[in-house]
Structure prediction request, 725 residues.
Amino acid sequence: MSNRTMTYRLLVLAPLASALAALVFTSEARALTCPDPLPAGFVLDVVDTTTLSLAFQCLKERNQTGLPGGTVQLHPGVYAMVSRGRGVIPILENVKAKPDAPITIRGSGGTLVQGDGQPKVGTHFEKTPNISPTLRRGSRLPSRRIGTFVIPGFHDTNCIQMKNVSGIVVEDLTVQGCWPAFLVVEGAEYVTVRRLQVTGSTYVVVARDTLTDQDTTPRSHHFLIEHNRWIQDCTGYATDGFGPRGYLVDDAECLRDGGKQKGLMWTSIDWRCSHHNTNDPDLCKCPCGADWECECNEAFCSGRQFEFFNGALFGGRNIAGGVVFRHNDIWNAFNGIRVKAEYTRHTEPPERVDLDGKGNLNFEVYANRFSFVRDNPVEPESTAFNWRVFHNRIWNAHAWFAFDDVRGGEFYIFGNLGRFDDLPGRPGQGHRNGTVLKFAESRGLPERPIYVFNNSWYLRSPVAGRGRTSDLRHWNNAIRFCRPEPGVPGCFWLVEGGEAQPVPLVDPRFTFTGTWLDHDRISHPQFPELIQNQNPGAPPKEGQEREGRRVDPPFRNVDGWDFTIGDAEWAEGGRIPAWQDWPSRYTGAAPPVGAFDGSALIEGPPYFHCGWLTGHPYRARCLQAYPERPRVMGVAWRGSTLEIAFSVPVRLPGPVRVEVRGGGGSALSEPCTVTAAVLACPFPQAPAPMVVEAIVLARDIRSAEGNLPMTLWARPSQGPRIEIR
Prediction:
């Protein structure tokens, strides 16, 4: 009888062996002790892929009575993952923990998860001949194609898989060679992935739900993706030329250097080849030429495809929502975050099932850095509702915010900084111009507004690309356009035939119907007259940029990311338009123009689960999509009162006081009051604003509807520490 068989038989007999306090799982002379029951704060020590799989099996077996919080500790070493059919892929399945007492899968210094799969170059992943060139030497991986949206599934080869889990944290790992994905999660709640250092991968994290003709309701919700660094394309660190056997890249050096060397995806590969697998044999050739030394072999290089790049740090397929994507550093990648919510019923003809109000709900995308992104830093697809995209830095990207074929609405885009100093692709290639706002020409349109306000950008591309939208509201933005002059790469508009023209304010093919724009400050010769002469379509007493001004925003230092404005009168030249339906808070005498309010990024509207529109059908469906426990969204002093904002309205069981600690002392508030989702706690005896290191909240604060307990999951990662007593 093999050790593995004995292990599984022991697992079956464990409930009958009451005398056993623990089992020892064994496989190939490796052992893992699995206490029964697992105590609170347990630690399972693993040293390789085999013991990691055994730890996951231990958690599954002990989950029958519920699991306390604990840790799966990966000790330093190389955790070699192997392809399906040639070994065991660690799968965590049917494991449930609480969001405030999670099971943490944690690496140590020197913990490397090493995949054995490499991307393939071919018409489709699964049809690539074995002799195809790759970006790294190694084995090939299959992938699944769903329409035009390629995303790894649970049956593909990945480094780690999870199914039917909740309360899981994955952190502090270095990841290399995990193609097509490092982690695929299906049917999950409250999953956190943080502090990963990743090179390669089509997707780093994939969250998905499998829908059927009988059940088209997404189940997965609450994903926190934070403080990760991802460099997708490391071909800038190739150790040999591109030949029939492909590239060999130095992942370790790529990671050490932060991916600062641009890869082929940005410099050479045509966008169409990495986006959608065009079959034009003259378009997708190997990147050989005067500036590349390589051994071109037409049998390998003509018509090659690079669609394996078309992924993201976080990819979603038909998940409910509740995603927090923050403080991530993304370099040399095709997309940043890419999620789709759409199901095609298997009928004749196929029927597209509307997931509006049920999928891609309640996303927060903030404080990320997107650098050399060949397509979209932010890309919702099919439908999305109640998104806040703010305080991000975008440096050299193609189409920053993609809203083509997206229904839904209530997108808030504010306080973002963006600039360029490079142009992607090679002369003669397409899709080099890019845009800030990407729209479709004839497909789905949002039913609710896209709010774009108080951003600061330095551009070489139009603000809006070709197409149309239903409700764009754009105000108080400070935008400097480049001037064609020496030292400014790409400051021109490429038209058919390669002719260069001045960059337009918006793509000439953009339709202004359904746009309300005003109070912007833009240094473009077409502004504001081009917009003023369009069909107004604006609310009463408002025009299309009637208050817009053609001026050059006096940013202090664009190259150094200092988009603050020294001229106070200029900086406070904004307005509150009639269509803004939330209260503005600013420190000056008037609303600011641009991303900064004084020396800090603009605060923006408070987050509210499922939006503000009482009675709107999207909001009604959103509230039924998944339960939302009150989450702490932010804290701020208003005079001597400390305000704590939650994601949903809360109620108090009785008089509640809040304790603050700092400077070796503490203070207790007067009884707090609640207005909807804001807890206001006065400190009349404490100096305000006082230096606060920790805030202690009462455990019995609950949601006003549903009586759900509060959680510290995804609490603010900056500012005072927040605790529950």
Q: What stands out?
A: Confidence is low (pLDDT under 50) at residues 1-21, 120-150, 288-303. The chain is about 10% helix and 35% strand. The CA atoms of residues 532 and 544 lie 5 Å apart.
